[in-house]
């Protein structure tokens, strides 16, 4: 059993001072669970939690790309709470720009956070979860880890990588009683599309006017997204408590609909290319 039923659960959550991570921390503290919350600014996190009982909170200022800092954070959590039941790798940011406009520095930074940071947390927590033969790792991807749109190339590439990492991890740790889940949110009413969480390609050209228009539309979107972050936090708890949930779980009606359409189109493409695919085998 990966989620305790006889005591408060211990959660380790990254990216907690804004958005879905903040909503989750609030939900967990109100529930009475014990929470280690990483952020780049504990002051911002504690300010955002004003009015919430933080007696069960361990706020940790951590750079997830620094493996030593991540290991110290995992150790501090274990020393205080005794163990870790659920890890939620939620930290990340958006990025908009054409593939041609995306610099090598932008690529490295995105993958350092989305993949390097996630990998650092997974490596640090797995030994204790394997020893306990219990635990649940939830990696927050995106519907853009399932399908791609113009202008989202770098973000999609990183989220596709999160999906691949998570799928391999799930198979590797299943025999230890550890569950892995991939969460694929759609548009939620957070600050993800604001300047605090959204980076833009710096060296742009006039070759991609459609992408410029898309960026303007997204910058005007905050406040109109269909997803409720409070309900997403509740859904994360439900997912963690489930013993037999799916590997992939969409959050939001938009994400669910897009994933279904992608699954249908992918199957159609595979069937259309089956004859050519089979033609490349040796004839024996």
Summarize the structure.
47% of the residues lie in helices and 15% in strands. The chain is α/β, with parallel strands linked by helices and 284 residues long. It has one domain: NAD(P)-binding Rossmann-like Domain (Rossmann fold), CATH 3.40.50.720.
Describe the protein.
The protein is α/β, with parallel strands linked by helices and 284 residues long. It has one domain (10-252): Rossmann fold (3-Layer(aba) Sandwich), CATH 3.40.50. The chain is built from nine helices and nine strands. The chain has a seven-stranded parallel beta sheet, with helices on both faces. A two-stranded parallel sheet has the order 5-8. The radius of gyration is 20 Å and the shape is globular. 40% of the residues are buried. This is SDR family NAD(P)-dependent oxidoreductase. Keywords: Oxidoreductase. Pfam families: adh_short (PF00106). Belongs to the short-chain dehydrogenases/reductases (SDR) family.
């Amino acid at each position: 059993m990966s989620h305790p039923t006889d005591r408060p659960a211990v959660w380790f959550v990254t990216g907690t001072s804004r958005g879905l991570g903040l909503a989750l921390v609030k939900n967990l503290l109100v529930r009475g669970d014990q929470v280690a919350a990483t952020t780049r600014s504990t002051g911002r996190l504690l300010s955002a939690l004003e009015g919430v009982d933080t007696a069960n909170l361990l706020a940790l200022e951590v750079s997830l790309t620094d493996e030593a800092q991540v290991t110290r954070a995992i150790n501090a959590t274990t020393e205080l709470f005794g163990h870790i039941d659920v890890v939620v790798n939620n930290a990340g940011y958006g990025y908009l720009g054409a593939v041609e406009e995306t610099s090598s520095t932008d690529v490295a930074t995105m993958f350092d956070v989305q993949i390097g940071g996630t990998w650092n947390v997974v490596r640090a927590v797995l030994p204790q979860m394997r020893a306990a033969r219990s635990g649940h790792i939830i990696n927050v991807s995106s519907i853009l880890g399932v399908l791609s749109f113009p202008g989202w190339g770098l973000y999609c590439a990183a989220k596709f990588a999160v999906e691949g990492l998570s799928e391999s991890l799930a198979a590797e740790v299943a025999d230890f009683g550890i569950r892995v889940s991939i969460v694929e949110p759609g548009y939620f009413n957070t600050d993800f599309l604001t300047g605090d969480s959204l980076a833009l390609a710096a060296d742009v050209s006039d070759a991609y006017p459609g992408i410029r228009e898309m960026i303007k539309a997204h910058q005007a979107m905050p406040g109109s997204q269909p997803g409720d972050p409070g309900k997403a936090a509740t859904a994360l708890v439900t997912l963690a408590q489930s013993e037999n949930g799916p590997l992939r779980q969409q959050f939001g009606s938009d994400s669910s609909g897009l994933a279904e359409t992608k699954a249908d189109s992918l199957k159609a493409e595979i069937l259309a290319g089956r004859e050519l695919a089979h033609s490349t085998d040796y004839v024996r």
